Amino acid sequence: MEWFILGILGLIAAIFGSILGLGGGIIIVPTLMILSNYSAILNGITPQIAVGTSLMVMIFTALSSTLAYLKQKTVDYKSAFIFFIGSGPGALFGVWMNKGIQVDAFLILFGLFIILVSFILMVRKHIKPLSRHPSGIKREYINPSGKSIHYGYEPIIAIPIAFIVGICSGLFGIGGGSLMVPAMIILFGFPAHIAVATSMLMIFLSSIVSSISHISLGNVDWLYALALLPGAWVGGQMGAAINRRMTSDSIVNLLRFFLIIIGIRLIYQGYTGLF
């Protein structure tokens, strides 16, 4: 039964992650931590194992989604590699920070982070980009209706942001898209579809770096990863297909609600463990 649950978890996390460019780890990690209290097989999962296993699975989720988005021609290669200049080193630093963190403190910190992400998703449409005409990287996207959309950013601003995103990826096992996608949309004026697709390529690259570090530290449970992988691959493809055919507003609202509930649950679990 536990293995079936893990398979479904991988599928659901990948679908949501692919639709919104989040990677899926923001669902996998807290769910593994919660399930560890109710399952004999999953009992004893530490934050380090949950994060390391999530990042390993995320490689395949992000690769599956990226391949689908490549066919849709919505991936901004140049921007993804520029962001990776920051997110790659940040991921390694996040792995180092993860090594000594305690379970209860991890749960509280992660719960607060999830609620913060929910708030960011709520206000993202009400914040104007930093600049409509940056002096740095300037990009143009022609949407399916033929409308030309201009966006851009300053690398000197984008790379430090990506570094922080990378830290969150290595520390929490979330891939970083939960911060990078809102940053691209809110700060740099990226069209939503381009932000999501570009985020998945960046997550793919960052997850490889983080996973190698976690493997070397023994933080990957290969049986859990194998149970999650089939759903993650299929979900990545499904999420990209759904993203193409619908607006993300209803999905974002549902995800925000889910994140608030699970964030509160994790904070409560961590608080009771500390006190």
Automatic annotation (TrEMBL):
Membrane topology reported for the UniProt record: Multi-pass membrane protein
Chief place where the protein resides: membrane
Membrane spanning stretches: 7-29, 49-70, 77-97, 103-123, 156-179, 185-210, 254-274
Keyword terms: Cell membrane, Membrane, Transmembrane, Transmembrane helix
Keyword Membrane part of the UniProt annotation: yes
InterPro entries membership: TM_pro_TauE-like (IPR002781), TSUP/Inactive_protease-like (IPR051598)
Family recorded in the similarity comment: Belongs to the 4-toluene sulfonate uptake permease (TSUP) (TC 2.A.102) family.
The protein's name in its UniProt record: Probable membrane transporter protein
Organism (species): Evansella vedderi
